[in-house]
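Consider the tokenized backbone below.
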């Protein structure tokens, strides 16, 4: 009888161990399948690759809105993200007049110039980003044009595109490009502004 009890107990222990091992394997398999659906890490060092043209359209929880927006529009006024700024900026600057927008752009140009002269790359980056994302005046620019509207709008679009493209380039290279190269970009931006102003005054 004792022998039968020992055999029965041994068989029970073995079957329990086998069952526990099977459960562990099942749990491990379940964990592996869960890992495969975890969303990738956020942008930057952790490697999340976003294929959205606009960062705010990315559903990844760690993706900062607007962090990597690349504008491929020839005319920034066609880009919804650059139309009146974004988020709080849009609310603050929605009622600006054309003069106020131009005054802000002038301040940002001075900021970039000060950054270049003093070697402050943060000032260059901030100024260039502000110009690239400048808001449109309330109602757009058309209400301010009283003559030669068709010809003037061509110049405005062309120069605004040049200023936008160059300021985006400067913002991206502010911490790496030689100061002489950044100064050349500043000349292109200010040259676009001057050409547009001359056309507007004429």
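A designed sequence for it:
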């Amino acid at each position: 009888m004792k022998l039968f009890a020992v055999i029965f107990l041994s068989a029970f222990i073995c079957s329990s161990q086998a069952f526990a091992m099977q459960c562990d394997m099942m749990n491990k398999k379940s964990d592996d399948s869960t890992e495969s659906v975890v969303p990738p890490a956020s942008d930057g060092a952790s490697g999340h690759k976003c294929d959205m043209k606009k960062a705010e359209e990315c559903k990844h929880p760690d993706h900062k809105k607007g962090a990597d927006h690349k504008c491929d529009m020839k005319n920034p006024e066609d880009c919804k993200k650059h139309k009146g700024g974004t988020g709080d900026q849009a609310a603050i600057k929605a009622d600006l007049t054309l003069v106020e927008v131009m005054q802000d752009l002038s301040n940002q140009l001075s900021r970039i110039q000060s950054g270049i002269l003093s070697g402050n790359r943060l000032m260059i980056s901030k100024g260039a980003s502000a110009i690239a994302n400048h808001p449109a005046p309330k109602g757009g620019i058309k209400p301010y044009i009283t003559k030669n509207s068709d010809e003037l709008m061509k110049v405005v679009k062309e120069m605004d595109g040049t200023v936008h493209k160059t300021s985006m380039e400067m913002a991206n290279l502010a911490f790496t490009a030689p100061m002489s190269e950044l100064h050349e970009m500043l000349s292109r931006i200010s040259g676009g502004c001057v050409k547009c102003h001359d056309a507007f005054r004429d």
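Residues 80-201 form a domain with the Four Helix Bundle (Hemerythrin (Met), subunit A) fold (CATH 1.20.120).
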